[in-house]
Amino acid sequence: MKNSNRLASGGLIDRAKPLSFQFDGKTYQGYAGDTLASALLANNVQLVARSFKYHRPRGVLTAGSEEPNALVELRTGARHEPNVRATMAELYEGLNARSQNRWPSLAFDLGAVNSLLSPFFAAGFYYKTFMWPAAFWEKVYEPLIRRAAGLGKPPLSDDPDSYEKAFAHCDLLVIGAGPAGLAAALTAARSGARVILADEGPMLGGRLLSDRRIIGNQSGLDWVKAIEAELGSFPNVRIMPRTTIFGVYDHGVYGALERVNDHVATPPAHEPRQRAYRIYAKRAVLAAGAIERPHVFGNNDRPGVMLGSAMRTYLNRYAVVPTKRVAIFTSSDEGYATAQDLINAGASVQAIIDSRKDATISAPKDVPYFKGAKILRALGNRQVQGVEIELADGSTRILDCDGVAMSNGWNPAVHLTCHQGGRPVWDDKTNAFLPGKLPAGLSVAGAAQGHFSLKDTLTDGFRLGASAVDDLGFKAHAIAAPDTDPESLAHIPLWRVKTSKGKCFVDFQHDVTDTDIELANREGFRSVEHMKRYTTLGMATDQGKTSNISGLAILGEASGRSMAEVGTTIFRPPYTPVALGALAGHHVHKGFRPTRLTPSHQWAEEQGAVFMETGLWLRAQYFPKKKNESWLDAMNREVEITRSKVGVCDVSTLGKIDLQGKDVGTFLDRVYTGTFSTLPVGKVRYGLMMREDGFVQDDGTTARLSENRWLMTTTTAGAGKVMAHLEFCHQVLWPELDIAFTSVTEQWAQYSIAGPHARDVLKKLVDPQHDMSNEAFTYMACGAITICNGIPARLFRISFSGELAYEIGVPNRYGDALIRAIMKAGEEFGITPYGLEALSTMRIEKGHVAGGELNGQTTPRDLGLIKMVSQKKDCIGKHMSERPAMLDADRPIFVGLKPKNPQAKLTGGAHFLDKGAKPSLDNDLGHMMSVAYSPMLKSWIGLGIVKRGRERIGDTIRAVDFVRGTEFEVEICDPVFFDPQGERLRG
Amino acid sequence: MRIPCPFCGPRDSQEFSFLGQTGLKRPDPNAPDAQKQFHDYVHIRDNKAGLTKELWLHANGCRSWIVVERNTLTHEITGSEFASPLTKEAAQ
Ligand SMILES: [Zn+2]
Q1: Which option is the CATH number for B2-24+34-91: 3.40.1190.20, 1.10.10.60, 3.30.2270.10, 3.40.50.880?
Q2: How many beta-carbon contacts under 8 Å exist across A and B?
Q3: Which of A39, A499, A504, A661 is 20 to 30 A from A161 via CA?
Q4: Looking at the whole model, is its pTM more than 0.80?
Q5: Structural domain boundaries of chain B?
Q6: What are residue A650's DSSP bridge partners?
Q7: ipTM of the complex
Q8: What's the rounded Cα separation, in Å, for the pair A18 and A30?
């Protein structure tokens, strides 16, 4: 049985390279150049899949990317991939494929019982059958449907392969490397234009690989080879085989998927499996060809029923006779070419059944020939075992055969022309939908334009390749299309065999039959868009490439409308399925969210710091002293030491913006709520920044380093947003201001030294010429200094912790050295590094607002900071923040919260209710924004907003957290829990 | 989509961030009905179907705010210029 269907010679396979592969656990042999489908057919494996809904046996229908039936699961383990079209999977040594949608086995499928239940599975069955009771959907219906009607199974572990994103630019993109595409590419290439020629297959040539044709005085294949060689000689041409152009986007952007290593078992080291391109093309020629139409007759889905063009592909390209006794069912002269090729290959043509009464073409000698006849149904189950036909006179008879080749005209592959909203237009002359309004810069050549003859195809290609590049200023030399061997293409489509017996499939992949479409029409789903969704016609992974047009014709027939009146749905990207992994490329895991490290990171690691992500930054959360010290114990220790001795914290992640120019003060007055223009040189001021809608967007300090130079800090998370906001304010609102600014976040490492001994530590670092005394360098002072014998640094006496504190900034490269120097200098004072937990606790103890409070929904008034809004000037957001409702005394306002039981673990997000009040929106008093355990107060504490909170200091209310299931009594208090007079930071 | 940046040339739209309709003038804060004017300035938009002028920031490029003339029905872009008139002048 080895390759029992393989011809002794011919084909484009490499017989010197035999390959073995597995299908459903059995080992077979094929050759390099085979697809999985051609290799299976060579081994006379006809039954390759079960269908989606009815689990009917299915074989190979096509030889291309339009295949609806032969979907398999490819590879194993983590590389397992469902829904691979066997017609597109190139064979490689050791390929392992399994059939889908079958249980327990492909040959014996229990799900096929669905066929018996088919009245329940008709169009709209999802909407009708599973409506009631609602609770049944999740527990009963959905699992049942999923088991019965799944399309393959996804792999359960991470994809071990990598994917890439890439970009390419060209003058002309040629989509499809058949005769039209090759002609277009050649003309353009000779003019010097940069050309990309892409084809979804591994070889150039399109239909010329499948049909034996003559072009000029050479064979079609030799013509392809000659052009491929010439194209290969141009440096301005890039040929991209195995590359599908899957989408047309605005402004000449084309999405492409290159299957770099799908044709091997595993990609070689450092190579991706697939690469997703954005191709920027000034012009494009679509030469995607056409897809042959199946006939709609009884049991037309039986294995052995195949498109005539596909059968010729298997014969001529793969040297495989798919079935040996074939009935030709044709409505086109092309069926006769299929018959001739079969005869040439030694197969038996059992009959030609031509639906046209007045066909003028003559049949090959000795072939039984029926004009005006139709196939009513295919016989057999797992493979065709004959057909019942109806002759012109209405009589019927049974013919013996093991395969059927269907030719019913072609549907131009107009899909990409629809991606910018173009709607295909029905053409009565070609009996096809032709491209409608085209995407800018795209023209359509050959069969995709309904020009089906080889000569016309070539003419189109040469002409459109030339006009595309002429448009761009190149000078293309006209190339005349060579003569080709005669061909006969006359056809009158037969949309369905009305007198059929048995199920007649229109959409093979979604198991949609002609009666489903009639039912949709009867039930009022007469618009194409409604019919499509009601029946799910064309909504499977093949997007109805072989089914849509027949479906529309049947709807037209049922509703008494012409094709033009029915119209068509449009196609959307992607042309064929694209793996999400390919679209993501390297943007996965850390490639998606890279990690930013501060200059002290290595040092912090050496100290055993536990890190947490804030934004993209990794920041030290706490520094456990022993391995098992909890975050709470570590935080408590860090706070206690900082407040009693001294601590140091890396604050390099804060956004820093260097502003220069004589109008910076004016600019800051307009973007901050407070006044900055009056800030003396050498001083720092806290600033609150609103959006124009009146809500606070960020806060920070700004230092005036010199008359015309300022340094602004932002929150870590808000840095990017603030930068864009300031750029908007400058470039769009007030371009006349003489200012310039840039982000210097990454240029400066900055550390906060805080605690009673902060100045003692600092003095050991700062060069002696600088007076660090409390009188000389007062609270909120700043200045340029040198440290450690001449290292330039900036010093800011600002405090987030409420302690005597300094922030010292040095150029980034000194960051690591400085943190080590600070720790050494602080050793004698018992210095501790502290992390984000301690930082957060200390700012909550001080009632300072941060991320939890600056949530984009709070105004300065809400945060108790209304005094910071200068009434002497306008600023961004001022008017909007002062609308009456924003100043309503009932609007919740910022307060501190202390639990009655100090050990009650408060939670952020808890809502406040009065004692005895039912939880409802009306009774809601506000919510908790930040919480911490305060080692200074030996109690949990919180910050939040409470309705009329300032008037209710001392009241007890409830903090209720339904998410975490806690409820505590809390006392409303002033938000400054610790050192309310602020004496420490001035000491 | 590709957006022509007057400084960088045509660039992929991924490099830009969108703000919205342009041509809005920030109201005079001292006008008697300033609050109403600010409300409209912040919230009221034409939301035109057709030719619009929009503000985009070339965030992953030269960081210019630019005004892009775009047809929202076809996505056709017919022009772009610096939002800042001074930059526009300097560029000429
Ligand atoms: Zn730019």
Answers
A1: 3.30.2270.10
A2: 65
A3: A39
A4: yes
A5: 2-24+34-91
A6: A751
A7: 0.98
A8: 6
